[in-house]
Amino acid sequence: MGTIGRAIALALDSGDIPVQLAAVHSRDAEKAGVFAATLSAKPPVLDLDGLIASSDLVIEAATQAALATIAPATLAAGKDLMVLSVGGLLDHPEWADLADRQHCKLYVPSGAIVGLDGVKGACAGRVDSVTITTRKPPEGLDGAPYVVEQGIDVYAFTEETEIFQGSAREACKGFPANVNVSAALSFAGIGPDRTRIRIIAVPGGTRNMHDVEVIGEFGRMTSHIENVPSDTNPRTGKLSYLSAIAMLKEIAGAVRYGN
Ligand SMILES: NC(=O)C1=CN([C@@H]2O[C@H](COP(=O)(O)OP(=O)(O)OC[C@H]3O[C@@H](n4cnc5c(N)ncnc54)[C@H](OP(=O)(O)O)[C@@H]3O)[C@@H](O)[C@H]2O)C=CC1
Ligand SMILES: O=C([O-])CC(=O)C(=O)O
């Protein structure tokens, strides 16, 4: 029931998508209840087991830490799962196997990144490198575990400054609420250890930006997004929830566009 969860709930409540919001879940049931009461559907606020039991598809939009509980519980119950805290999937390849055994689906929307269709196509052939460069204003990086551990003052920079360079797997540990896009890119592409990421703090920046470059036998592909930070979480760009809403529409519909 954070930024993404509420945006999805509101989209479902508008009635534009043929999907019913069965229930919501939060650590703070009272706070969630206040929000749920504003929806015309008035979904019940349930504990996790109750939510899973009453749903066909569970959408995780919480944290990587919460995903460690939500994913195995949902999949073990044979229910489909959509994951936003995508970095939390990196160290759990067994969840894909569990979904397979339970005949249910694990969905990862593109979220705040663009071009994963092309990356998937490219990876059907030989790909030599995948690199993502993430640029965020200080507010979009503040408080990340890596920033805290390294004692980096993200507000002190006067010009664009690279604060991290490494693999997507390392980045998702150091920046679990900031670069889930690099995990989605890894799954679409060449995996979290070969996918490289640079994270750049942009003083005075107003957009969360991600530049992806893929080089392979197909040639070279680049993508660029300038994502407006959401109103309630500066780390999260608006396309994050719009992408999840679009994926829900496709799941509920008969036609699927793109790859
Ligand atoms: N894939 C992508 O492209 C993107 C992914 N993300 C990721 O998606 C996730 C959600 O993002 P966003 O909505 O912006 O984050 P918010 O911080 O706005 O909301 C997260 C919510 O999760 C709740 N929460 C935390 N722990 C638990 C738990 N154990 N059980 C239930 N609820 C819990 C928090 O509520 P409270 O603290 O009140 O309990 C909070 O309301 C994050 O992990 C974020 O990094 C974000 C942007 C893009
Ligand atoms: O919205 C963004 O820029 C991406 C983001 O927070 C994430 O990937 O975790």
Description:
This is L-aspartate dehydrogenase. The chain is of the alpha/beta class and 259 residues long. It has 10 helices and 8 strands. A hairpin with a 2-residue loop joins strand 7 (208-216) and strand 8 (219-227). The protein has helices at 3-13, 29-36, 48-53, 64-76, 94-101, 116-122, 145-149, 168-174, 180-188, 239-252; strands spanning 57-60, 80-83, 106-107, 127-136, 161-167, 196-201, 208-216, 219-227. Strands 5-6-4-7-8 form a 5-stranded mixed beta sheet. A 3-stranded parallel beta sheet has the order 1-2-3. It folds into 2 domains: 3-112 and 240-252, 3-Layer(aba) Sandwich (Rossmann fold), CATH 3.40.50.720; 116-235, Dihydrodipicolinate Reductase, domain 2 (2-Layer Sandwich). The mean pLDDT is 97. NADPH dihydro-nicotinamide-adenine-dinucleotide phosphate (NDP) binds at residues 1-5, 25-28, 61-64, 66, 84-86, 111-112, 177, 180-181, 184, 232-233, 236, 240.
Keywords:
259 residues; alpha/beta; Rossmann fold; Dihydrodipicolinate Reductase, domain 2; 2 domains; five-stranded mixed sheet; three-stranded parallel sheet; 8 strands; 34% helix; binds NADPH dihydro-nicotinamide-adenine-dinucleotide phosphate; binds oxaloacetate ion
